[in-house]
Amino acid sequence: MNKSRVVLAGIIISLFVSSALFVGLWADEAQKAKPKVQEANKLESFKKLRRIMGIVEENYVDELSFDEIVDKAIDGLLSNLDAHSNYLNKKKFDDLRANTDGEFGGIGITVGLKDGALSIIAPVDGTPGDKAGLKSGDVIIRVNDKSTIDMSIDDAVNLMRGAPKTKVELTIVRKGEAKPLVFNIVRDIIKI
Predict the structure, then answer these.
(1) What digits encode the pLDDT tens for the residues 112-171?
(2) What is the domain count for the chain?
(3) Same structural domain for residues 127 and 82?
(4) pTM value?
(5) Residue ranges making up the domain that contains 70
């Protein structure tokens, strides 16, 4: 009886070792296949992105170059990661450098959207905007001949910036004034 138990235990142990070796080999093969699956998934994702970009290029209501579509895709990707990730195309990068290098041509006001309207947050002391009499809370309804309704802040800022000694016309709605006010302002170098 003892001998048969030893034989049975030996068979069970050998089956267990064989199973463990089989599972180990299977797991090793699965691990080797994992990068291939990941690469195939990446390739499928890139194909999907390329298809969508092609559809946008062919069918979007406004004409967009493929570079513009790529820029918008990258911008969307990075802006959805977290609050600190952004994509700067060449123009945005140049604007950032102008703001951080210390000077640019403009009128010297800080603007933002307040209740959906382009509003002056504050004129910078001693700048053309300050000297012209622009005030915090003024709502800019036109820059030169362009309405600011549905205009982005970047577009409005780009219209107000320009070469020193050139003019820009702002039409302002001010609380307490019955009619819009028109300001003709000569741009100057604005130092940050």
Answers:
(1) 888 888 999 999 999 999 999 999 999 999 999 999 988 888 888 889 988 899 999 999
(2) 2
(3) no
(4) 0.53
(5) 1-87
